[in-house]
Every structure is written in C-alpha cells, then in structure tokens.
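Renewal narrative, Specific Aim 1. Our central claim is that a sequence can be written position by position from structural information alone. The example that follows is taken directly from our test logs and has not been curated for this report. It begins with the structure tokens describing the chain, in the order in which they were read.
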C-alpha cells in the first residue's frame, strides 16, 4: 500500500523508526557476542540485511554501554585507534531473556496477523516507489 498523503507518509516513517529502534537494540546486542569496532559492526549488520546509519549506531552503542550492557576499549589496529565493543557480563545475562521476549512477541504478532489474513508480506514502500 502506497501512502500518497504527506501526513500518512510522515506517520508511517515515525512508526517505522519506532519499530526499528527496539529491533536495532536486539540486533546490536546479538551481534556483539563477538567483539567488533563500530564500522565492522555496521558492516556486519548491513551484510545481514539490517542497514544502520552511523548517526544511529554510535549513540546507541554509547547508550548501551552507559546501561552496562556493553564494554568497550580503544586499541590500535591497522595503525589507527579503534573502539572495540562487546557484550558485558550483564549484557550476556540480559540478552537471552530479551531474545526470549522478542520471540514471544514475534510469535504472538504472527498469530494476530495470520488470524486477520495479514501474514503475507506486502510490497515494501521502497519497492513500490522504485517500480513507478
């Protein structure tokens, strides 16, 4: 469904950002079971189909670190200082519970959408725009 009305398009964009925020937290935490520096993390997420802008990623990493879910350290690699991130012990404790919550929500949403005949994936807004 294409939203031609500017107000509905803006509303969709805001809702989409809100939905992505929670998903990005889960994705970043899960990806950081293995240590990465910022650019490598961004590339790894993108390679998995989850593009994330630098202006979103770095504040998210700082917030997760301030919450105690990540630890970081500066190291020199390839003659450049890079900040490497990984899950903290608290992050390792919280992530499995967060993933279980995410799975339960996803399962419930699939049931709700299936019950309403909405389970099939419609064309994305970007695909629809590209086809014009």
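The sequence written for that structure reads:
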């Amino acid at each position: 469904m294409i939203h031609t009305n500017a107000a509905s398009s803006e509303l969709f964009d805001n809702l989409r950002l809100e939905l992505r925020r929670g998903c990005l937290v889960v994705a970043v935490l899960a990806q950081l079971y293995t240590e990465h520096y910022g650019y490598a993390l961004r590339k790894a997420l993108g390679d998995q189909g989850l593009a994330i802008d630098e202006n979103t990623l770095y504040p998210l990493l700082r917030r997760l670190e301030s919450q105690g879910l990540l630890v970081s350290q500066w190291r020199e690699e390839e003659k450049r200082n890079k900040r490497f991130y990984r899950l903290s012990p608290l992050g390792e404790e919280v992530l499995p519970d967060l993933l279980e919550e995410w799975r339960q929500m996803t399962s419930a949403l699939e049931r709700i959408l299936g019950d309403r005949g909405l389970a099939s994936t419609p064309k994305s807004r970007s695909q629809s725009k590209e086809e014009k």
